[in-house]
Fold:
Amino acid sequence: AIADMDPEKAGDTAKLLRNKPELVDVENLIQISDLVVESANASILGKVLKLSVKYKKNLLVMSVGGLLRHKNLLRLAAKAGVQIYVPSGAAAGLDAVRAGAVSGVKKAVLTTRKPPAGLKGAPYLIKNNISLEKIKKAKTVFFGSVSEAVKGFPANINVSAALAFAAGGAEKVKVRIIADPGVKTNTHEIEAEGKFGKIKAVTQNKPFPNNPKTSYLAALSAVALIKRLASKGLTAGS
Structure:
């Protein structure tokens, strides 16, 4: 089954699939699914989380930044035995950061470099009157906290929230976003430091073919996780 805020878009997507899914509303989708996959945006994540808990359905989240706003729902999910899955997304190195967090991550910095077109429409840029068209060379358009980053760039920087969860807390992570007209890839560089030593991981992603705001690898990481879950027979309540 498939659901979308735009029914026409859901229908168009269904036509591309070999096995035609049933078109339903969000609640019906969650009710009849073994695994729910959210790939919409952070604004609908709260509703999806509540319904997943209500029907005890495991949930794979792409809009990871939205999880930072719903920590109370995460606690409810844990209490209900609902698993929340977060794919590796567009950045390598999160597994190492997660391991380092066992002894404690002192600090971490995510530096994201994208072509200006990949940042188009970001609320932070609009609010601060930052014109992407006027950027002729690499420019840092944001530096700040994870919570500020996911709020100001909801379609671009979910990887920062994934890093925050891996590091053991958003307060340990800073985010730098660079608009660079000289690049054609989305680059995520993770630097983390703690008792374990230092970690540095760089990932250069090609933009998703029909959505330059996200990285192709982010979508592929979700597919890989779904395949892994399916092979293990993990469904609701497991």
Observations:
- The longest strand covers residues 105-114.
- The longest helix spans residues 216-232.
- DSSP finds nine helices and ten strands in the chain.
- The mean pLDDT is 92.
